[in-house]
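To whoever is covering the structure queue this week,

Two jobs came back overnight. Logging them here so there's a record in the thread.

Job A:
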Amino acid sequence: MIARLSLVLCAALLSACQQESAALPDPVDVTAEAAGYYCQMALLEHDGPKGQIHLDGMPAPLFFSQVKDAVAYLHMPEQSHAVVATYVQEMSTGTWEEPGPWVEVSEAVYVIGSDMMGGMDAPEFVPFAMRAAAEAFAARHGGEIRAFDAITAQDVLGAPDAGAQAAQGEDDIAARLNALTSYKGQ
């Protein structure tokens, strides 16, 4: 009796999981009218992979000019609607000018900290469906490979390295002082 009940329960759970995964919306192709959620600029004007997030009760997805922006949105605690699905353009088969197909955000591995800048000329999280392609990309462009669930809020929402900012600020101040000294001497 217990074995039969367990079997029925497992079948019910499996059926619920199948129904839930079947209910996910398909990714939407980027059109000329698609604009980035944060920048409100046309997505097609930006190179690099993009992201889209489907929200419960909303008729169209939110588009993001960069994958990192979509991941940042997912890490923000205050959202008005539940996230139903998130897709990113994977780069295993794409180019920076023509990114690859949409994949579910958790199915990709990401190269973070590479020298490639995303659509808004900011550091990008570059998604790959194939780990070997991510490894080859990281060998050429630097960065580290991470699974989606290993990307933290600090990775996307944290401030840049304070030491690097301080050094850059000191260099900038020194350059300005030298420029003023040279100008005054003329």
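Job B:
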Amino acid sequence: MTPITRMDLTGFTERETGVWTDEYGLVLSVHFFGLVPDLPASLNQPDRLRQGLAGLAARAGGGLIEAVLGEVDAVPAVRQLIKVPRPNGHGQVFLGSWTMPRATCSTVVKVQAAEGQMTGMREAMVLAQVGPERYFAPHPYGADTSGGLPYHVGDHEHWDAQFPDHPLTRVRAALARLTPSLGLHEGFKALPAFGA
């Protein structure tokens, strides 16, 4: 059970409690954690939060593409896009999530999609367009990202239109579509804020 009271599930089929999939291979899931959130900083410290999230992703072998502060049904939240290597070592999995932290618990909405047999096409085409000197860049959150997947401009949102079938594009679009439809239980919304 989660505090989520409504969500637009158009195009998704429930596979098990709290998990849905669509025809493109997207996996949507909802989670509730009855523990103090393990975010590296409060949402009132955005620079420290982003830097900490980038470091966590890198230490886990992945890469934080972006972390954006916002609201879900008037509750302060952080949206993350992360890439991680596929478990079999071929390609990447892209994960998008909203984390809605409260003082003693949190709820998360997550969308993920993996690359198929063909991998690296988006990266190769963007690299060819911008050149190698502009492709790789220091992480914008200034974190030590050694050990993780490299940060590069090929993951930026403005390339999504050129690659509508790429899993990162699909994850971003699904999260954007879902966000306005999300509703939270009034009891959850009334809980003390995280890091207050």
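Note for Job B: Helices lie at 46-59, 121-130, 132-135, 167-178, 186-189.

Please reply-all if you pick these up so we don't duplicate work.
Q.
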